[in-house]
Write a structure and sequence with these properties.
The structure is a single chain. The chain has 442 residues and is mainly alpha-helical. The protein has a single domain, classed as MFS general substrate transporter like domains (Growth Hormone, Chain: A, Up-down Bundle), CATH 1.20.1250.20. It is 77% helix and 1% strand. It has 21 helices and two strands. Strands 1-2 form a two-stranded antiparallel sheet. A hairpin with a 7-residue loop joins strand 1 and strand 2.
């Protein structure tokens, strides 16, 4: 974690705008990034716990896979993605710490409330409001980290922050799986939602705002006028590498979210594993593999980019291409052991992109547009990936059910996994103009 500490002491303004700036120590920067990583992990726990609970919910409420795909995909992603833009706009102007704190409190409360749902529509409404809450966290966190950490080590810092994804998945699957098996899916929702309310208070009381642009040596950035939304869109659209970057992340997320949401149900149906067994297995494989891949991606990108900055995007492209062939072993195996064994390696490569992709989004954006740049990237990941991925898998599974019965889900997942190849092509195209676009942004 020490890689994020070079040039580490940054000046920061306390949340109220009139209070004087404070010089933060290296330990405080570590704490701040650690706290934001914790927030991200809780975000993923509350977001992804539905995937481990879908099979018992399907059985109790008698839902089709298409309905489950809507519940876990479009219903959440529509509000998460669209509200991310205006909230990011606010984060480029107001207190990012306050926005994160309020967001954590809202999504945690609504996750707990999911446990009280008596029908599909009540569960749908609760999940929509979880998406509303989670929309405020990501762009604000990315913007804060960009102001804590200089460009030279920003991929590593954002990779550390992105460890919240595999950590959250690990906890969500393991805890959610066993809670469901022992106490039912309603208790699982409540148990993971309530602790987030305390985290919201800790965030508000202990995190402070660094001045915008301080890590880039532009301490007066907070005084600048916020550009109109049309100017933000025009500026970012003109950067060809950013256009391909957001396209790539959206396509990759179709495969990522499609698999993440539906793999537990696939293991339930094809191999008759219990919720506890599924949760434990996926927590270990997705969690450990995700941590290794995410950390390695940030380190490799920062290290290799010293020779050629294009490595920041070649790393994600290579990761996706390498991961694809393993999909055939995962979904065409005959036993649960073989399936889970095939899963272990591609998870590492599929997670290489987190640090470098989000670091380049911040580097390509002007200072007053950084939260918006993150929001655009997260919009594509969420609206396209989370919205289309789970829904597409659900529809394909229902269409293939007359031919393959309970195994229809395995073939739907195999088809959707091929999206990694398309995504890799756009990462490569983005790398071609990256040096020129970064020069313009400086």
């Amino acid at each position: 974690m020490t890689s994020i500490d070079e040039d580490g002491a940054v000046a920061a303004a306390l949340t109220p705008a009139h209070e004087p700036a404070a010089h933060f120590s290296k330990p405080y920067i570590r704490y701040a990034i650690g706290m934001l990583t914790t927030v991200y992990a809780v975000n993923l726990i509350d977001r992804q716990i539905l995937s481990i609970l879908m099979q018992p919910i399907k059985q109790e409420m008698q839902l089709s896979d298409t309905a489950l795909g809507f519940l876990s995909g479009i219903a959440f992603a529509l509000f998460y993605a669209t509200l991310g833009i205006p909230i990011a706009r606010l984060a480029d102007k107001r207190s990012r710490v306050n926005i994160i704190s309020i967001s954590v409190a809202l999504w945690s409360f609504m996750t707990a409330l999911c446990g009280l749902a008596q029908n599909f529509w009540q569960l749908l409404a609760s999940r929509i409001l979880v998406g509303v809450g989670e929309a405020g966290s990501g762009p604000s966190s990315h913007s804060l980290i960009a102001d804590y950490v200089p460009l030279e080590t920003r991929s590593s810092a954002l990779a550390i922050y992105s460890l919240g994804i595999p950590i959250g998945i690990m906890i969500g699957f393991s805890v959610g799986g066993w809670l469901e098996q022992l106490y039912g899916w309603r208790v699982a929702f409540m148990a993971v939602g309530v602790p987030g309310l305390l985290l919201a208070v800790i965030v508000r009381l202990t995190l402070r705002e660094p001045p915008r642009g301080h890590a880039d040596g532009v301490a007066q950035a907070d005084k600048a006028e916020q550009p109109p939304l049309r100017e933000v869109a025009s500026t970012m659209w003109k950067r060809k590498s950013f256009r391909h970057l957001v396209t790539a992340i959206g396509i990759q997320a179709i495969a990522g979210y499609g698999v993440l949401i539906w793999v537990p149900s696939f293991l339930h149906r094809s191999y008759h594993m219990t919720s506890g067994e599924v949760g434990t297995a996926l927590a270990f494989i997705l969690g450990i593999g995700g941590v290794i891949g995410t950390a390695a991606g940030g380190y490799l990108a920062d290290h290799l980019a010293k020779r050629n900055v294009r490595w920041q995007l070649w790393i994600p492209a290579l990761g996706g291409v390498i991961a694809v062939p393993f999909s055939f072993g995962i979904y065409l195996s005959g036993t649960s052991f073989e399936t889970l064994a095939w899963f272990a390696i591609p998870i590492i490569f599929a997670n290489l992109y987190h640090g470098p992709v989000f670091a380049m989004a911040q580097a390509l954006a002007p200072l007053k547009m950084r939260a918006m740049a993150a929001a655009i990237l997260l919009f594509m990941s969420s609206f396209v990936g989370m919205g289309i991925g789970p829904q597409l898998v659900g529809i394909l599974s229902d269409l293939l059910h007359p031919l393959y019965g309970a195994d229809s889900l395995r073939y739907a997942l195999l088809c959707v996994s091929m999206a990694h190849i398309w995504s890799a092509a756009h990462f490569w195209l983005a790398s071609k103009t990256l040096p020129e676009d970064l020069a313009i942004a400086q």
